[in-house]
Structure prediction request, 524 residues.
Amino acid sequence: MLKKIKENAVLIGLVFTIAIAVMLIVLSYVGYMNPQIYARMQPYLYDFGIDIMGALVCAALFFGCMKQKGDGTRAFRTLVVLVSGGFAANAVMYFFMGVPEFAKLTFAFALISKLIDLAMIFLFYRYVRETLGFNGKLAELAEKGVPILLAIESIVLLSNIFFPATFFVDDTGAYQATGASVAEDIYLIAVSAVTTILIVKSDSPRNQKAAALTFIFLPLVNYALGMGTFGNGSQYGMVLMSLIIMYCIIFNDKNSKLAATQTELNMATEIQASMLPSIFPAFPNREEFDLYASMDPAKEVGGDFYDFFMIDDDHLGVVIADVSGKGVPAALFMMISKTIIQNYAMLGISASEVLTRANDSLCAQNKMDMFVTVWIGILELSTGKMNCSSAGHEFPAIYRNRTGKFELFKDKHGLVLGGMDGMFYRDYELRFGKGDKIFVYTDGVPEATNANNELFGNDRMVEALNIREANPKEVLAMVRESVDAFDHQFTDLGTGDLLFPCCIKPRDATACVAVLQESECFFC
Prediction:
């Protein structure tokens, strides 16, 4: 249940803000049509009008920031919801205020309004901390102290349920503050003061800091003009105005930077893609084998890669690999790994020797402790023998023409490349006849996960490979279609383009398959 609520939190927030706006419009209509209610609400019509208008603007503002991503977006949307709730609590309180039989209801909404005040200032602190960035000893103290102050102030307010600590609603339904009501403002003043100092000291642009400070100073102006009262409609109106200012300035600035970053990532994606063989048929003059490969990165750039190349006229090199991590660091390590592995493979040495030398080279300059799993096969075209070695990579799937089906070949793994220098790797040999195939892939295929948190797994992958006899390109298409059908409940977790439309967890996926043709040899 909680998982479903979390996944649909943004939609729930939109529905809530719209429902609040509609509810206040209905209340205003009821109050206008009932002379007794209208007469009772006369002193509060100004605040009630602000509540209605504010609720409508909150719904529009929430809709505008629904698709925003990045630091602080969740806190900002929650702030909008809280302000909407503040407008509602005030409006309902005004609606029932002054009616003795509704005294408890008036008290309840007054308490809710004050608790919303506490939550708003806390969410504001979280928002500016995430978007502007705080550092130093004061920031460390605030990180520990603000939640403690919030807890203490909440206890003070909730104690009013049992005895009039800071306020009460009398028998006539009128709101009354006690002599200790100043205690309600201690948390607001303390957190506002600390947050102001942290905002001023942050390294963010001045316009962003000025926009953030409006959240504190606009309500203070209203507090002064309202003769020292928090929690009225105009106060929330000031808070809403501040949120609009922050939305226009902070969000727009960050979106501009995100757009520039996105452009750079798109260029990086193109550069990365250009490094991988992408023209098929890859060797149109070679009729003895066929091959096809594809890559679907979990983010704009990723760490998975494949490669194939002619070492000499009789030897074809095939590599598939998966770098730890995602994004730009993985992509950089991927390009280094690909170049090193291909350079050693072109020397004509064995597959195990290629991995041994590549591992030593990667360990020598691996300050970020990254690693890569690799499977490499060197196919001798004249005989159909493939010299293979694995550095912690997924098991290949082999299709034998005599059996007419794919099966996993559980080879022996060595340690990942970059994990420890001085490692040695083992060779093994595969023999292929006419029509035989090999399917190699990264963990994005078997580890694709559906909405029930079930893995696609190797068994389903092998079933997909055995749907029907197919050429290399069609083999990859069958696997993709099977993963697509695994679960059509697609959830975007905000991590970029995922593997396939059905998958929830972001996984890089690279696969390549080879087939031995009518002549002597094979690949796809």
User: Anything to note?
Assistant: The CA atoms of residues 339 and 358 lie 10 Å apart.
